[in-house]
Amino acid sequence: MKNMITIFKKPNYSLLFWSSFTSTMGSIVGIAALMLYLLDRYTDQPFYAALTELMYSLPTLAVFFLVGVLADRMDRQKIAVYSDVICAILSLALMGAIYIDWMPLVFAILFLRSAVSKFFHPAQAAIIQGILTKDEYTVAAGLNQMTSSLFMLFGNALGIFIYWTVGLQGAIFVCFVTYMVSAILIRACKLEENVVLPNGRHKWTQLNVRFVANDFKDGMLYIIKNPLLVYLIIGFFVFGIVNGGLSVMPAYILKYKLAPKDYEEFMIVMGVVFGISVLIGSIVASMMAKKLKLYQMVIIGLGVSGAFVVASGYSPDMYYYLAFTALIGLGLPFVNIGIGGWLPRIVDPKMMGRVQGWITPLMMLSQSITLGVIALTFQKILSVEGLHLLVGGCLLFVGLFYMFTLPKHATEEEEGADGLENSASV
């Protein structure tokens, strides 16, 4: 707790933290409200809900080759600000598309807004890496995980509440406001040039096709030369499958199996249970980060959460499902804090944008494929139980894979870091 208070004393980190908080909260509220709207209006066509989530993940594949390069070559602060402002404008456009009730335009704007938003995280994450010390990375990862738990606790519930009270338009307007607040907070940061421009100044005219292709290739070679990074990114690809499943699983199992008539109310209850358990898990994982190695936290978290995801698919009633959901929430923070605290330690700050530029699209590729498969096969080939078995099995597979690969490379990485520290002290 003391370490968390210490990093919040850094004004730039506080502004970046709250900008990410407001931006993500608005996005979650809007997506939750839109999914409920589509489930209400198109009850017999559940693929619309999967299609909404697909419009969030698929755009990454259209911009992945630019995201990391721009984060490393252009002003990271301006990229984050412009991303938020453009997303705010597109939120207003989305309200107009919903008003005229033209679904192709609604999904087109969702696609475009999501594509623009993908430029935000690599730039913001790279800035945070530049303003924190190595010892503070795990603390920041713990804070991010706690924030995620608050999103789970209040985000969907708030989205559902706004949808019930002021309708879908009100929820989309919340997106507009939060994007603008996020942009203002980032703009208020006072950052050193080496943080926002670690590779020096570049002009837009320099970013031709060859330049972008070379930078993108450099990011790939940097990852390939680091086995530990390769293994982590393989895990991220599978996590995309997990994210795709988790984004629609609760709504599907509640609406089509456990609570067909009251699924909206139970979604709020489930969100509260999951959020509280993730918050508790975040606190426990943050404390255990001092006693366990980061790879041990990742493996434990994957094993626990994977096992209970599978079990939750076979829940006979809501009480079992809520209990399994709570246990899943306790395990996931160990994974997120472990990887979130580890990645900045092993990536050169000058390459962080390009590394993130590979991680995000790989995750979104697998997430998009998963959502596409779900949209086409759910209730035809894939059952609710099968969906949970797929997602839980992926978590268990990655946990087993990491059990055999991470310990050796983690030890080598730590020994390399100790060697550098010793040579520096000499």
Automatic annotation (TrEMBL):
Residues annotated as transmembrane: 12-39, 45-67, 161-186, 228-254, 266-287, 294-314, 320-343, 355-375, 387-404
Gene3D superfamilies: MFS general substrate transporter like domains (1.20.1250.20)
Coiled coil: none
InterPro entries assigned: MFS (IPR011701), MFS_trans_sf (IPR036259)
Protein name, as recorded: MFS transporter
Organism of origin: Sutcliffiella horikoshii
Keywords of the record: Cell membrane, Membrane, Transmembrane, Transmembrane helix, Transport
Example GO molecular function: transmembrane transporter activity
Cellular component GO terms, alphabetical: plasma membrane
Subcellular location: Cell membrane
Recorded topology in the membrane: Multi-pass membrane protein
